Amino acid sequence: MKNDDFYVGYLPKAPEGLSAVLRQIVLALLAIGTTLAVSLVFAQTPFPLSTFEFQNYKTFEGVLSEYPYPTLLGSKPYLLVAPGKHGAMELVTGLDGRTARLRGALIYRDGTAMIEALPNTIQPSPDPSVRPAPAIDLGQVTLDGEIVDSKCYLGVMNPGNGKVHRDCAARCLSGGIPPAFVVKDASGVSKTLVLSHAGRFHAFVAEPVEISGRLLRSNGMFELRADPGSIRRLGQRE
């Protein structure tokens, strides 16, 4: 009995019928793989529009504020941080209310801006200190959101929030990077609040939490003054 489709692997060419079947299988697998790859790409959540102008140093001028976190009040308010995972408090201590010039790289997202200030570039003017405008108290609030380190969230890392970023955020906060609380308004738009405190929030980073405190508008930014004792993990409310 003769079987034309019988094929032994060491033969130079497979029978035509078997070759046709194999070609169809290979083409089908390629089509499935391509479709799956394209579907996975389009299913990904797009990266947020956050920017870090790495090593693109510019000169900024304004009034320095030490509290609640180092800030330069120029054409707009800029939170200040040092290079790496370090805050800028050591760079501005004793300069509260002083007009100054400095060099640094911009970090920004959703209207909130930050400057990674270069050490030894802050040049205070001899002018008298300027008394900052008092914070506007917007009342007691209870908000749901996520605690993040502001430097990475605003643009240095992407994504700069969520569980994948938890360890990095904890180290940044330990180094003095200002903590921020990311919430959503009634229309679903994310808002970044500076989170001032009387303690540490490291244990709650990258988790959905509820925080109660006073909401203020300070130095052109929203500030949530909360005590860590007010934090509740969502789903664990008493």
- Measured by DSSP, the beta-strand proportion falls in 35-45%
**Strand tally:** 14
Number of domains: 2
User: What spatial form do the alpha-carbon principal axes imply?
Assistant: elongated
Into which percent range does the helicity of residues fall?
Answer: 10-25%
The total count of helices amounts to 4
How do the strands of the widest beta sheet line up side by side? 2-3-4-7-6
Structural class per helix/strand content?
Answer: alpha+beta
Which architecture name of the largest domain does CATH use? Beta Barrel
Oligomeric state, counting identical vs distinct chains: single chain
- Determine Rg (CA atoms, Å): 27 Å
How would you describe this structure to a colleague?
The chain has 238 residues and is of the alpha+beta class. The protein folds into two domains: 50-124, OB fold (Dihydrolipoamide Acetyltransferase, E2P) (Beta Barrel); 136-233, OB fold (Dihydrolipoamide Acetyltransferase, E2P), CATH 2.40.50. The chain has helices at 16-43, 89-92, 150-156, 166-174, and strands spanning 50-52, 58-65, 71-73, 77-82, 86-87, 99-109, 112-117, 123-124, 136-149, 179-184, 190-196, 208-218, 221-225, 232-233. The strands form two sheets. Strands 2-3-4-7-6 form a five-stranded mixed β-barrel. A five-stranded mixed beta barrel has the order 9-10-11-13-12.
